[in-house]
Design goal:
Distance between the termini: 30 Å
Number of helices: 13
Number of strands: 15
Strand order of the largest sheet: 4-10-9-8-7-5-6
Structural class: alpha/beta
Largest sheet: 7 strands, mixed
Strand content: 15-25%
Amino acid sequence: MTRDLFARHRAVLPDWLALYYEDPLEITHGEGRHVWDAAGNKYLDFFGGILTTMTAHALPEVTKAVADQAGRIVHSSTLYLNRPMVELAERVAQLSGIPDARVFFTTSGTEANDTALLLATAHRRSNAILAMRNSYHGRSFSAVGITGNRGWSPTSLSPLQTLYVHGGVRTRGPYADLDDRDFIDACAADLTDLLGHTRAPAALIAEPVQGVGGFTSPPDGLYAAFREVLHERGILWISDEVQTGWGRTGEHFWGWQAHGRSGPPDIVTFAKGIGNGMSIGGVVARAEIMNCLDANSISTFGGTQVTMAAGLANLNHLLEHDLQGNARRVGGLLIERLRAVAAQVPHVREVRGRGLMIGVELTRPGTDEAAPEAASTVLEEARAGGLLVGKGGGHSTSVLRIAPPMSLTVAEAEEGAAILERALRSI
């Protein structure tokens, strides 16, 4: 049955629509931190639909909220008052840390970043954007144009002029050998020098932890130092929290808070986990920025009632059960467990991450050369052992990405680590 579905997939869907595994997997249902395939095999899910199943599969509060709302009305568009949308916007604005915040809902992180770019360029009257090397911000025309990861950038055409900045990857690049303080100073000096050679850009867009790039991040405080340079010139800071938001990193509710010394971002984008699988994205910005557009706009599907009901239920569950704290505690244990394993596996260059956002970078032993074939081997072996993980990385996709639902238990973390250890030792 799966082979037939695979053949049908290849016959009607694009060749560039990537599938994991030599024998692709059809997931039919899930519960908690587990999913099942069409053959009835059970897997511990350490990727959560690309960080989207944030709390748990089939979370009762979310499924009930969706069913109840669907029984009343599913959709009406933003042309009409929408109580669930207003209620979720109030919660997000309050949690954002941005003063006088306004919220606009979209259907994805790509669309959220697209909207942020529109707002920033309109507000600043500039089409120049600063972006980070190794970054990823979505698959739309404008988002691809600012993506600093060649593997996810299919065209050089763009409506924007993009200038790429050092700093998103701590352990590679020209400043890798510096200590954290000197690394930050060097990156900020490079940014200052770059701005001396161009017209003032509209904004810097940055992921506090680069997701598709392999869960890389700078030292805490880098974007605070950037913020000081930007603020002097009126340049906006957009924090792409599509993967880092809602407490996944454990230490903070938003990734930008690790860089908050100079104040919050001007714009925050979010998506993925807030809907727990429902299609929700959005933008938070100061009112003067959000309201700068001088033309009408709507969102047909952004903020639709059924997704907003899901988002409210999911956010309430996350806050009431302190899943941020759980991500910090269980994620910390998982990272240390994996680092102990890595010390005995020559292919592992680094285990990095925060909370339940963990990257295991694989290279050819004794070198910094990427080992994508090793990552593919581990992916397959982990699946055979009953564990699903992801891949990423700006260096030939040789980073294993680990991001389970934030309700992961200690026992499940130990189980997943044991399976991953066997898979790593199989290289």
